[in-house]
Amino acid sequence: MTALDAELAVSADGTTVTLTVTGRPAATAKVAGDLDVAHFAGALDRRTPADTRAGLGRTLFDAVIRDETARLWAELEEDGSPLRLRLHLPPPLRALPWELLASGTDRLALRRASTLWRGVPPRPGDPIDGPLRVLVVVCNPTDRQVLGDEELAGLTGAAAEHPAYAHVEIVDGPDRDRLTKEIDRLRPHVLHFIGHGMPRVPGRAAALAFNWVTAGESRGTVWELPSTEIGLLVSEQWVPRLVVLNACRTAADPLDQVGGVGEAFLRAGAGAVVAMQADVESPAAADFAAHFYRGVFAGAGLDRAVAAARAEMARTSGDTGEWAMPVLTCRLDPADVLRTSFRRLPDEIAGLVGRPEYAMMRNFLDHASGRRDAWWALDPPEGEPRSLLVVGGRSSNPHKPTGKTWFTRCCLLTYFLRGYRVTYVDVGVLLARPDGEPARTKTWLHVLRMIREACTAPEQAEPLPASAFAGFEEVFDRLAGTPDGAAGQWWRFDENRPRAAEHRDRILDAFRTALAAAAAERPHVIALDNAEQILPESFDGAIYPGLLRPVAAGRGGVRVMLVGKADWLAERLPVRDEAYWGPLVTIGDFQAAQMMRLARDYCRRRGFDFHQLERVFQVMSEVEPQTWVTRFNEVLVALGLIRAVES
Q1: Most exposed: 272, 273, 471, 596, by fewest CB within 10 Å?
Q2: CA 593 to chain CA centroid, nearest Å
Q3: CA 571 to chain centre
């Protein structure tokens, strides 16, 4: 059943309430009851008895749903339609816990299929051109009383359930300058703060604390972001659609000494703010973030995502009042704030994400800045795209994988959702030789054949027709001297025949022409993974000068990801051409300081209790300060929690 839009608005002087419901005449009544802020002090404290809290919710309801508004409400109850109820409240009343509104034992914020939020009459918002960009700011990374890593695991785990729908980056304990630069650089649609709301200090503006801890020593510059300076974080060119303040007392009345933080972001132009209206304990904040972002990344409107998070918190923690802590305030329609569109049809997206090689992306950890660099190299938000992206894997342990193949797949998925044709080519696969032995290293002709076969393979997301290479094959057969009866079979190329170098260059030119013609309708990203398996002489003499450099120098629809070992790439790529392909995107070892955070994240994604495995990962981090994503798998395999094939 479709929810009805409803508004419960209290006049500026706090004396009159009006209930407006779509398709029905408005009803007005006098506000009654004790709505003094002091009367509701401690309403959301865990130590407050549930009966007391429920009584306060009924007090709020009875104060505004009475006389004419009560009669209209009774009609709605009889009709049984769910509501999208918006509260429009004047400053003196915003500090009250309206999320506790209860008709008898029926708590409105927990009603099935209904939602409750605050704000002025909203305006519609344009859809976001996905992926959704999320910047998480951990204000106090050394404060163990704030379970930032648990909250991050819930947020990133929710994002992993919908690969490439959202791009999440994290900044720990920034100073003022770095925070501003990170926001300017990423231009996030969602700005999420994990930290403390500062205690009330008369005469001072509300503030968020950075690198401030309640116990132990801080790391980094200790500073405060007052509500009066929040407008300086954003610019005329960019304001986040949503700000989430998972910090205490950031949602109270703007005249309050702390609650002005949320209102300040709204005044700065944010489309919506989710903030906390009381002292929220870290486990509750982490639970809310996990449930809330699960809805957001599934495409639910903000009001529905908040409602689902409330319901889950109430179901798992009981009537502690924590479910009523979050306050959603919107300037845009909640359904539009984070409405994200992609250039692919839903069936196309589901078809690719459902493939095994992309389904495993949900276990791919971190490398967020590298993924953003790769995304914006070939598909920048502003300016001209590059046509050649070079990704190098480097590890302090050369015998361990660096995750560059998963990284490549992740990038291709983003490009695909953005509307590109994508093709993955694994240059590292073994090829059969005439003598029966497998060939690991590849000639330039091997590489062309592998690209052609991958581009036309039916298992690709959007294969090219075989006819796309018909013109090239005619050129190849003529220049390579293909015997009669073997046309189109890519007979070997004799490097010792007369004018071999000239013919090879013309073959490469014809191959590029075929790719460019096929990419005329839509840009085509081709990833060449494990490039170090190309013979050096073939790469230096043919693949780079005849394929990669011309692609890099051109502005056509063909774009190439060249992926391989960083040291090999550094030896092969001419420094003089760095303007075409630089800077190199390097991935590999995780930072040792991030080890336990990533282990927690990984366990959550795989469905294992991190706390039962924490000591194992701790020992591993002490023995090997640098680690790799496969090491997490190895631990789980060694403990018998997953099979080796799953890793």
Answers
A1: 471
A2: 22
A3: 35
Could you tell me the two tokens for 380?
């920048």
Q: Quick check: 143 and 214 in contact, CB under 8 A?
A: yes
Residue predicted with more confidence, 61 or 495 = 61
Q: Does the CA dihedral 275-281-282-288 come out positive or negative?
A: negative
CA distances from 470 to 473, 492, 515, 548, 550 (A): 5, 18, 11, 21, 21
CB 233 within 8 A of CB 179: yes
Nearest Cα residue to 196 out of 251, 248, 138:
248
Residue 229 sits at the vertex; the CA angle it makes with 225 and 235, to the nearest 5 degrees, is: 115
What is the residue-wise DSSP string for 202-268? TTS--EEEES--SSS---S--EEEEGGGGGGGS-SS---SEEEEESTT-SS-TTSTTTHHHHHHHHT
**Partners of 527 in beta bridges:** 424, 561
At position 519, the amino acid (one-letter code) is A
Cβ(528)–Cβ(427) below 8 Å: yes
| 243 bridge partner residues | 191, 273
The answer to whether residues 531 and 567 touch, using CB atoms and an 8 Å cutoff, is no
Give the span between the Cα atoms of 507 and 484, in whole angstroms.
19
Closest CA to 557 of 448, 422, 383: 422
- Cβ pair 337, 302 in contact under 8 A: yes
SS3 labels along 467-510 = HHHHHHHHHHHHHHCCCCCCCCCCCCCCCCCCCHHHHHHHHHHH
Structure confidence at residue 504 (pLDDT):
94
Round to whole Å and give the CA distance between 422 and 462: 7
Distances (CA, A) of 561 to 261, 273, 330: 43, 38, 41
Q: Which amino acid is at 107?
A: R
> Do residues 151 and 286 lie in contact, with contact meaning Cβ atoms separated by under 8 Å?
yes
| Span 69-86, pLDDT tens digits | 999 999 999 988 899 999
Residue showing tokens 């950890």: 365
Which two three-digit tokens encode residue 499? 């004018």
Residue 370 to residue 387: CA distance in whole angstroms = 17
Does residue 458 have a cis peptide bond before it, meaning omega lies within 30 degrees of 0? Answer: no
Q: Quote the pLDDT of residue 156.
A: 92
Q: Where are the beta strands (DSSP E) in 351-395?
A: 388-394
Per-residue pLDDT, 68 = 97
Q: How far apart are CA 139 and CA 211, in angstroms?
A: 6
- pLDDT tens-digit series, residues 22-58: 999 999 999 998 899 889 988 988 889 999 999 999 9
